[in-house]
């Protein structure tokens, strides 16, 4: 029996209420007052104390006897569990059976309603068709209100019986309305660690005097509610908060495959699941490799688990089976349990109200029969444990995890969910978990302290103290990282509590090493905190219906038109849904879906309003009126019955937000800390990157009998620069830096280098900084976080190494892309005239028109093939930029770009050979609506690695007050260099010379173009916006009449 079970059974408990899953009940009020019944229980046994009720400020040191079995193998167990969950997903439909009234057992379906006196009334034989799964659409409640703490004090009160009580008093301010409130904390809540400046959320009602008391019997206080803490993390933090914070900050083992949503309709068999196990392994080799887990071990575990899974399904699908009994540790004793439906597998549940989040292994409809053979329907979480630790501290943590999942599901399903199931695969044991308010109070308080710990770590790089329990610490997965952080932040051997073990792990670190680690840890946190601001805006009280953000789409619905391709609904085990604006009509303008979201972005789908998260997906396609999103499994609203899933989805209004990847920063921290560990590989990396030791190369002559060298000398397509660069790669023992200017054949050089290395039998890993998802995220963050950039985050590893050891650089200087006039721009601005054309053909390349059409004078000048570079100045036209919240575009420039591309195609230039570049997503989206689909239109960031015969650049910014028109995008020379070096034969730039001249890099560009007499000033005679072009310009504007 677990520690939790023993403590639960040691006290007198009240019989569990039948029929807790009530329709239309006030969940908030019930969660507030749910302690009223058990209050008598706690008072009747003064010795009872929940295992989770240790006040945060009075934590005792964990004893040496804490069970740490399975600690070192957690990574493999997690991967085993993920694979087994996919197997369970395959049998999800098998467990879904129709609810029927059983006349021979005397059990009838029941429904419940709340009477005016707040007592529970029970109506037998409910109307036909009602079921637990069918829920009426909940009324929209206001967003969670967060308060600012501006004073914390303690006061003495005299009770009615004359006893004195000490309360902690919080004075709060609602920043939205300016109203002041007070919260009185008593009992264990008194020990909550709260300071002025903190943000809190109060779950409870305030009196007319603006006071709310939080005690053991009623109400909750959530500290830092905008930090969504994983239920798993909260449960694990009781034994060592420092380990849990490191878990969150150094997530390197979260690789897993999403559960498949293609559900079978046949009964599961051993043979089917064994075959599917093999398919799962093939699909997830990448995840297994990332985790360092051998696929044979995973396969063996899965095969061993299949008989137990089948047995569990058969037992709990049949309520008459005597083995389907589960002990919930209550006065009711053992109960018969029947699973009637698996609602979801790995259900993502976020509850900003409680500051919690989690992924629930399985959400189920369960029928529970009491001793009196009364059957009650419940919704329960099932937590699935594959490790060997099934008792002691591990069992307490597992129970805590299930309890927190009931809280998440209560918020998600708008029902009181007081029970859960815990299944141990290793022992084939199913345990019932009953939730008590006293347990929830302790868990919420622990969650609050963990949120504070996470905030301190991200803002001050301050971790909780070391545990100082050698028997526990020596088996911890974070032992090495934990001791390195302790050393880096001035910790001592006495403070570690580990003696010589600590010294052996950190004695190699110098002061310079510690400073390097602290500096880059801080810079990573600065970047990560920028994303946290976005998340807080998404889930905070100010995120109201109708709020506009460039990274979200609100008020959208599922597109149910006949034009949606049904055969593409399921694509490669992905489920595709298409959305459109709720108020879409034939006259809708292009602004309907205007935002910075684009194809390939990872997004979160939630209800609007309500912000109920339903799934994570990837944008597959985005047009003026539709956005198509791919998900790993079918969408389903909580509470939807199986027969109404699609109907309920179509009735809902949705919101799509960009899913910013904070996990990538955890990977950065993990990779950073690896350099400071005590092993040969880390020592070598540290010597090169931190100590900046010179790279090593093979000395002596290169022998001709080396097939790789022979291949490079014989390859005629390589120029001298490329050949020297590859030979340097072949002789490098550490690293080689290839500085490839635009168009110099970096890709070709890498291809031949790979071929040469393969001839030697080398193992090769190819990576790229320009993966669109990663690249766009990093560039965005780089422009957002000024403090991080100014402190060195903008300095790449390539730059750091090249400045320290220029002899390690091989430069490629002959380019084969741009004609000479185009090349001269970047040569003058960036490369100090080191760049040269690889051949006369490249230098003299021009556009060749196959058709001849009549056109206006200004367009003839623009299209002249002899003018390979031209800047169209719009200062003589009313072509100012248009701002809308966080977006900016320029309708006039969009019109000019449209006119030029139309004439280029009319004169025989293929759309595939034309590209349009702009710094801003909103401008790209505007131009896409009116330019041929064959013309590639992207932001500068997405044009890295691409080139076209003709490139048009729209700079967008144009202001009556150009001095105040600041743009980090236009001031970034890396971006400007990309924009200028994509064109092969013709570069056409459109912008305001007056405005752009206030940006230093663009001022130099305009001066260079002016030297070649290549600036074209267009005026109202060229583009008469009041007459023939007024319709086209208005068509492009979408935002205002010109």
TrEMBL record:
Class in the EC hierarchy, top level? hydrolase
Question: Which SUPFAM superfamilies does this chain map to?
Answer: P-loop containing nucleoside triphosphate hydrolases (SSF52540)
Keywords for this protein: 4Fe-4S, ATP-binding, DNA damage, DNA repair, DNA replication, DNA-binding, Helicase, Hydrolase, Iron, Iron-sulfur, Metal-binding, Multifunctional enzyme, Nuclease, Nucleotide-binding, Nucleus
Going by the entry's taxonomy, the superkingdom of the source organism is recorded as Eukaryota
Q: Which InterPro entries match?
A: Cas4_exonuclease, DNA2/NAM7-like_C, DNA2/NAM7_AAA_11, DNA_replication_fac_Dna2_N, P-loop_NTPase, PDDEXK-like_dom_sf, SF1_C_Upf1
* Cofactor(s) this protein requires: [4Fe-4S] cluster
Please state what the protein is called. DNA helicase
Organism phylogeny: Eukaryota, Viridiplantae, Streptophyta, Embryophyta, Tracheophyta
